[in-house]
Amino acid sequence: MKTEDYQINTNTHMSDDLSTIEQAVSSEYKYGFVTNIEAESAPKGLNEDIIRFISAKKEEPDWMLEWRLKAYRQWQKMEQPNWANLKIPPIDFQDIIYYSAPKVKKKLGSLDELDPELKETFDKLGISLDEQKRLAGVAVDAVMDSVSIATTFREQLAEQGIIFCSMSEAIKEHPELIKKYLGSVVPVADNFFSALNSAVFSDGSFCFIPKGVRCPMELSTYFRINAENTGQFERTLIVAEEGAYVSYLEGCTAPMRDENQLHAAVVEIVALDNAEVKYSTVQNWYPGDKQGNGGIYNFVTKRGICKGVNSKISWTQVETGSAITWKYPSVILKGDNSIGEFYSVAVTNNYQQADTGTKMMHIGKNTRSRIVSKGISAGHSQNSYRGLVHVAKGAVNAKNYSQCDSMLLGDKCGAHTFPYIEVKNDSAVVEHEATTSKIGEDQIFYCKQRGLDDEAAVALIINGFAKEVMNQLPMEFAVEAQKLLAISLEGSVG
Amino acid sequence: MLKIENLHAEIEGKKILKGINLEIKPGEVHAIMGPNGSGKSTLASVLAGREEYEVTEGRVLFNGKDLLELAPEERAGEGLFLAFQYPIEIAGLSTINFIKASLNAVRKYKGLEPLDAAQFLKLVKEKMEMMEMDKALLHRSLNEGFSGGEKKRNEVFQMAMLDPKLAILDETDSGLDIDAIRIVSNGVNKFRNKDNAVLMVTHYQRLLNYIVPDYVHVLYNGRIVKTGGKELALELEEKGYDFIKNEFKLAEEKVDQPA
Predict the structure, then answer these.
(1) Half-sphere exposure of B117 (CA within 13 A, CB side)
(2) Which chain B residue lies closest to A460 (C-alpha atoms)?
(3) What residues of B are in contact with residue A460 (Cβ under 8 Å)?
(4) Any bridge partners for residue A268, and if so which?
(5) Distance (Å, whole) CA B94 – CA A467
(6) Which residues 428-467 in chain A show a CB within 8 A of chain B?
(7) Is the separation of the CB atoms in A251 and A280 below 8 Å?
(8) Which residue of A20, A92, A398, A464 could cross-link B93, Cys pair, CB 3.0 to 4.6 Å?
(9) What's the CA gap between B214 and A177, in Å, rounded?
(10) Reported ipTM
(11) Do A165 and A206 form a contact (C-beta atoms < 8 A)?
């Protein structure tokens, strides 16, 4: 096991003048609007009654309630982890609202009946729920606070046997699948936040691709926290049967608020023989203001299992938001010849903190994994990569390649790399490379001399740095992600 | 086009430029020569707007505008181009994408619409032929892993693409072999016309065999101490900078001493 810590955290330039880079790194959060919609909420706090309330609101079967209660009891015995390189202010779990739903007067027959305010919210976010989205070939499930608002394209998908719906519906309509797979990758008591999520999860997406089907369009979920003091605990489950393929996108935003809001999601992916799942995230939760007030605490457990032979799971994430990010999308490589990939760009600015990375668990024979992590730190932020490559005793011929690059903007931020390598089979080949670089005033000046302003310069440099990861994103998503990188660093990137 | 009046500049309290006067008119090629440490590259940097240098006195007019008031990107927009002595590298950013962003930024400054892909590629093709630029370089990361010659060729190619009014070449010949100098110089000569101007900063005379200047200025200890025609460069080459140093040492000492 090896731990390295590349920290660059000097305060040599104490001049009053903001450097070019700092100026370039300070723009505003664009998605910080609040939608005025009547919401129906649970009272603050967490106890068994609240869980019963949530379960009842969702008209869940008894087995689901029992599952939740069991998780809650587990959670009560657990403690919040503190091993990450994060300074987490104490969280009062009794001061959070665990269920909030935009009031829906009656069951929606079609999208046309959606609350116009809600619709406008999603339009502002650039997710059109209208069927025009059909042209773009992306099916969307939108989740506001605790509840799935609408899922588009379900009928076309259903023709091929694909299920794409909210988790609440799946529990009612596909109990056999949910019972089989929910908690099978991330067990209830896996960690503190996954146990909490299992107890109180409110909604999320369920996606099932049957044997031999290639999902004809990108499936996408958009999460938005709207109500005040609300935690969002969504649960996503993706199952790809033998030979199935799906590309799944996830995006998230939240309004700007002074207080911190909690987000603790769980995502599980199951890939059977010869199946492939590509999961892409653009995380843009509200990061807090420039002084570090407010913002989302993002504690997410994402894990996939390559259960079958020749299966593949690929995580791509662009992390720009949240005050605190604690997130390690992982792959269990159980099937022989299975492949796990993790591509990540994590941007931190101002007082954001991120501790993010992956775990690749090599169990089957001839399994391969690839990790490409690009951390970008600006302002006073701290950005850590934490990754584990584990090769089990029976994992003959496992191969891993890890590359962790950090880029620093300015001299008040930190970049850290914590790679852990555990190899129990001699035939394994594990490679790790890490670099830390600083975006130089020289690079910026060169760009400026060619007519580009600070923001455009930083954007070009950052996007170049992150290119390998950006290339993994679906085309239309990549363009958005590039803009987002620019915006996140505006005042730090363009 | 460019008028420098009594320009003084320093870095971290150290005086580098001590009263530069220079005027460049459209169609002219000027060469600034001088020994190491005389302030040649500082002059190029100050004109381009590098922030580490503080201008303490004097002014610079560029096509009637106060150049020193403009940000570096505005100077670029106004038509000032600096070919860097050490072009920087940007990993992951292709040269062609960089040039496209740059060209469209300059066009935007001038109030022009960005070029569409077809127009841009047409221009690239034309300038590539003109500058003998290798197409493969355009798709590699900006200057990353480029040889010294390739980097300089890329600078001159960018100059041709942006078509500035004044091109400042900072030691563009340094580190180049004869073939590379020839190619780079041909590029500069093709770029020259009656409406633009070139300011070459160089230590050696050899570049001036290829790009023939109208004026040669000798910079020594932060001042232009001698101005002449292209023959001055040959004289310098023959006698070395010592003759300038000796000639001006006495005068310098007098000036530098406090009254």
Answers:
(1) 0
(2) B93
(3) 90, 93, 97-98, 101
(4) A237, A303
(5) 10
(6) 440-443, 445-453, 456, 460-461, 463-467
(7) no
(8) A464
(9) 83
(10) 0.94
(11) yes
Amino acid, single-letter form, for residue A228: E
Task: Read off the tokens for A226.
Answer: 């709207």
Question: Could you give the CA distance from residue A450 to residue A457 in angstroms, rounded to a whole number?
Answer: 10
What is the amino acid identity at position A347?
V
Structure token pair of residue B200 = 């070459």
Q: Beta strand pairing status for A266-271 and A295-306?
A: parallel
> What is the least distance, in Å, from the CA of B177 to any CA of chain A?
25
Take residue A185 and report the two structure tokens written for it.
């990758």
Residues in B touching A447 (Cβ below 8 Å): 98, 102
* CB–CB contact A446 B109 (8 Å): no
Name the residue type at position A378. Answer: A
Contact assignment for B76 to A442 by CB distance below 8 Å = no
> Rounded to a whole number, what is the distance in Å from the CA of A437 to chain B's nearest CA?
11
Find chain B residues with C-beta within 8 A of A449's C-beta. 48-49, 72-73, 75-76, 81-82, 84
Q: Name the residue with tokens 């909490």.
A: A196
Among A440, A451, A465, select the one facing B73 at the smallest CB separation.
A451
Q: Do A463 and B50 touch (CB under 8 A)?
A: no
- Tell me the nearest-neighbour CA distance from A135 into chain B, angstroms: 24
Which one-letter amino acid corresponds to residue A44? K
CB A362, CB A394: distance < 8 Å: no
CB B68 within 8 A of CB B2: no
Polymer length of chain A:
494
Q: Nearest chain B Cα to A453, which residue?
A: B73
Which of A403, A437, A448, A467 is the best substitution to test chain B (most B C-beta atoms within 10 A)?
A: A448
**Cα end-to-end span (Å), chain B:** 36
Cα separation of A219 and A214, whole Å? 12
**Please, what is the angle between helix A48-57 and helix A62-76, to 10°?**
150
The residues, ordered by sequence, that sit 6+ positions from B78 with a Cβ below 8 Å of its Cβ are B62, B63, B65, B67, B70, B109, B165
Yes or no: say if A342 and A281 are a contact pair by the CB < 8 Å rule.
no
Distances in Å between the Cα of A81 and the Cα atoms of A117, A260, A263, A388 are 39, 18, 15, 17
**pLDDT, one tens digit for every residue, chain A (494 residues):** 333 333 333 222 333 333 444 444 445 665 655 555 556 677 788 899 889 988 988 889 999 999 999 999 999 999 998 888 888 888 888 888 888 776 554 444 455 555 666 566 656 555 555 544 444 445 666 666 555 655 667 777 888 999 988 888 899 999 999 999 999 999 998 999 999 999 999 888 899 999 999 998 888 777 665 555 566 788 999 999 999 999 998 876 655 555 667 888 999 999 999 999 999 988 877 778 888 788 888 899 999 999 999 999 999 998 888 888 999 999 999 999 999 999 999 988 888 999 999 999 999 999 999 999 999 998 899 999 999 999 999 999 999 999 999 999 888 889 999 999 999 999 999 999 998 888 878 899 999 999 999 888 988 998 889 888 988 887 767 777 777 777 777 666 43
Say whether B81 and A449 touch across the interface (CB within 8 A).
yes
Q: The tokens of A447 are what?
A: 């760009």
